[in-house]
Amino acid sequence: MDAADKFGARTPAGFERREYVINGVRTVVNVGGKGQPVLYFHGAGNWHGIDFAEQWLDRLQIIAPSHPGFGESDDAPPEMSSMTDYVLHYLELLETMGLKQVSLLGISMGGWMAAEFALACRHLVRKLVLIAPAGLNDPDHPTPPGVGRWTLQEMYGFLVEDTTSVGRHLPRTPEEHAAHAAQVAREARSTFKLLTPGVPYAPLLERWMHRITMPTLLVWSKADRLTPVGRHKKWMRLLPNAQLLLVERGGHLTLDESAEVRDAVVRFLA
Q1: By the 8 A CB rule, do 104 and 112 touch?
Q2: How many angstroms separate the CA atoms of 138 and 19, rounded?
Q3: Fewer CB near the terminus (10 Å): N or C of the chain?
Q4: Cβ atoms 249, 101 nearer than 8 A
Q5: Which residue(s) pair with 30 in the sheet?
């Protein structure tokens, strides 16, 4: 591997890198810690890592896969093109790992994925945390224009208030910049493949959310520029067993930016 290949492919401190082949798709999973198992679904970008979980490892076991088409995992095959495909992918991953029940944590697109997994496989989900989830149509609080066409600097501005919170994952050399840009572009293509047709919500999710009966924590930052905080009202109206945490600071990647959020999540899960 040259420097560009290595950039962004770092196993976090306290984690073990594992590989599983799930229905023909090599899936990379970082596993660390002890205690209640927590399956983490990242959002539409996996470049910012899971540094936020390092302080949880004495209380929780964190299982952090890279979705097919993201991070070090293989590209998704052409026929894997819906959230249902990803739910089945992770159902088989849990079976392969021998996990009978987990708590589930998802952010943004990963929150949408977590909600779909929870309503389809609720017997497997002990508790659920959704952080600024996508997936519900809310025309009163639209996504800002230009998603997928932003420069890297514009993208950072929509994701975090302060780039130092993800500083370890930002490129410093031309080679790292090229590798980072290529990863962001690949993950954007993988994301848009899941949107049918290019719509960041699931028409049937709203109809079936009554099945998400496990204790749920919904988290949103009032400063989120990507998914407007007003969307929390619809989620809270539809989730039957949810509590809400609204925080003043931190952007869309509020797990990376907010100690308040990290503390609240670990208290809820552990």
Answers
A1: no
A2: 37
A3: N
A4: no
A5: 17, 64
d(CA 187, CA 192): 9
Percentage of the residues of the chain whose pLDDT score is greater than 70: 95
Tell whether pTM > 0.90.
yes
- The separation between CA 229 and the C-alpha centre of its own chain, rounded to angstroms, equals 17
Could you tell me the two tokens for 142? 């639209």
149's CB contacts (< 8 A; 6+ apart) are none
| Per-residue confidence band for 190, with pLDDT thresholds at 50, 70 and 90 | very high
Placement of tokens 């925080």 in the chain:
247
Specify the residue for token string 């047709």. 197
Helix (H) or strand (E) holding 27: strand 25-33
In degrees rounded to 5, what are phi and psi of residue 221?
A: -95, 135
**Number of domains the chain contains:** 1
Residue 168 maps to which CATH number?
A: 3.40.50.1820
Exposure string of 147-169, with b = 16+ CB inside 10 Å and e = fewer, is: beebeeeebbebbbbeeebbeeb
Average pLDDT estimate for 127-148: 90
- Taking the C-alpha atoms of residue 266 and residue 261, their distance in angstroms, rounded to an integer, is 9
The confidence band for 122, taking pLDDT boundaries of 50, 70 and 90, is very high
Domain that holds residue 253: 3-269
